[in-house]
Amino acid sequence: MSTDTTNTTEQKPLPPVNTLTKPFWDGCREGVLQIQFCNICDLPWFPPAEACPRCLQDDWEWRPISGHGAVWSWIRMWQQYFPGWSPDEYPYTVALIKLEEGPYMYSTLVDIDDKDVSCDLSVEVEFRTVNEEITLPVFRPSHGTTDR
Amino acid sequence: MTQTSRAELRNLQDKTAIVGVGTTQFGAIYRDLDPERSAYELGLIAFREALQDAGLKRSEVDGVIVSRLPHYGRMCEMIGLRHPRFVNVLPGEGRQSGIALQYAALAVANGLADVVACIYGNNGRSSGARYGGEDRGTTPQAMFEAPYGMTSPGAVTAMMFRRHQYRYGTTTEPLGHLAISNRANAALNPNAVMQRPITMDDYLGARYIAEPLSLLDYCLINDGGVCFIVTSAERARDLKHTPVLLHATSQASDITPVYVADDFWHEPMSQIADDLFAVSEAQREDLAFAKLYDNFTPTMLFTLEGMGFCEPGESADWITPERIGLHGELPLNTSGGHTSESYMQGWALHVEAVRQLRRECGDRQVADAQYGLYACAAPLATGHILKRDDR
Ligand SMILES: [Zn+2]
Fold it and tell me: Of B342, B336, B379, B387, which Cα lies nearest the Cα of B99?
């Protein structure tokens, strides 16, 4: 067994980037949230998949989306399931965002106190750089005009 | 799908029966952590007990369905079953326990097998299972969830419950009633893992896991094995116990990438209820008990609402200690359920239903057990009405 200190410095989980998901992460790095849309029926979907779940065809493209949505629900995670979160980060917030375009996306909330969070809160995307490859989309209360 | 199109469900009605049940000693092995404990051994112990309970010879078993156990072959080897005629493997998800019974019944009713043993083994506690954090991104879902620390079935249930709170003003108190009731029932079940009664103060004071849910909303993590043996109703009448018939059964689903459902699975659960109560002469008020899948307490709220025991959003008022207790209008999870008896992913709930209908449950026996409900709300949902066959 090696003597390195991997266990004490273990990182938060990072998404594996593959051919299918690379455009999503490339977009995030550029500050653009994009998801797949079907070129035949215009259906958007997330997470990425190889074909349109409605047409079953692989004629699709990545299109930028508004970055607006609403908090469908949210939790505060107290249990330490993953390494990488330091003790003072608990509990951390996880939110399930219903994007304006329809699909749902798990994320987290920034620029808001937990006591002010509520379901159906309007939010908009911003980006947090993790490393050279990965920038994560997160959501903050919406200052814009989107009214759902 | 229209109701009439499912009239064929009657083809399975009362055709098959559970004739033998077996469970390991949940409480005793909970106190005896053994990292080398094998899930197959637990399955074997349960099978041996179920076979004896049924009064069947091993040579009469010609079908095997295993779940959570990775391979049917190893289980068949260990129980000395060399030439099964019907075999299936189901993943170790709780929604599969009801499906195991459906497959067994389909096989028996259609002549593919005479006697099917459904076997489940779970060494999760001894092997360090945590039911969260295992997947750092191997699936399309996990790779977009784990980076935010999102993981575990409990956390998605917490998401759904928070939404239910927002939409209907639900408090955690009804969840407390469910947890307390489960524990009170477990105190009367010598085989249950958790037997010390709890109070509302205990419930409200429990530490959070995925807020708004706390420890006492959660299923246990424990080791165990469960087996039930299915054969034809005709054959069952020649065996030693009063047969427990698969009277009505149905499956429905709402499969999405995020697990949660905006209607709290009302649609699939109401489809199942429609199927069951269309086929059965028994209606909701005729049920002597309900075994509701309680991986986490809110799942029971969604089940009660979806299956029409109350209106959407009204389960919090519907759930009272009097109504759900052993002597109430609809006793729930009389064994203690997943939060207090044993987390056997629905399998032990099936066994408890059989034991109640046989009226073998001693201090926790409910009155006049003739019909009982099993239901599991999940993206893949199931429900059955089981019936005591008095002939
Ligand atoms: Zn399409």
Answer: B379
Q: A136: nearest CA in chain B?
A: B147
How many whole angstroms from A125 Cα to the centroid of ligand 1? 26
In this prediction the ipTM stands at 0.94
CATH superfamily, with its number, for domain B133-219+248-391: Thiolase/Chalcone synthase (3.40.47.10)
Closest CA to B199 of B191, B187, B188: B187
Structurally, at CATH architecture level, domain B14-129+221-241 sits in 3-Layer(aba) Sandwich (3.40)
Task: Assess whether pLDDT exceeds 80 at residue B124.
Answer: yes
Model pLDDT for residues B146-197, shown as the tens digit of each residue: 999 999 999 999 999 999 999 999 999 999 999 999 999 999 999 999 999 9
Task: Report chain B residues touching chain A, CB-CB < 8 A.
Answer: 130, 132-133, 136-138, 140-141, 143-152, 155, 158-160, 162-163, 166-167, 207-212, 256-258, 260, 262
A:B CB pairs within 8 Å: 109
Q: Which chain B residues are closer than 8 Å to A12 by Cβ?
A: 147, 149
- Cβ contact (<8 Å) for A136 and B148? yes
Of the candidates B153, B152, B169, B84, the one whose C-alpha atom is nearest the C-alpha of residue B118 is B84
The sign of the torsion formed by the CA atoms of A15, B214, B268, B288 equals: positive
- Does this model's pTM top 0.80? My answer is yes
Please give the pLDDT value at position B134: 87
The rounded distance, in Å, linking the Cα atoms of B81 and B58 is 8
- Per CB-CB distance under 8 Å, the chain A contacts of B262 are 72
Rounded to the nearest 10 degrees, what angle do helices B298-306 and B173-186 cross at?
100
Residue ranges, CATH 3.40.47.10, chain B: 14-129+221-241, 133-219+248-391
Per-residue pLDDT tens digits for B261-292: 999 999 999 999 999 999 999 999 999 999 99
Selected catalytic residue, list B168, B343, B371, B374:
B343
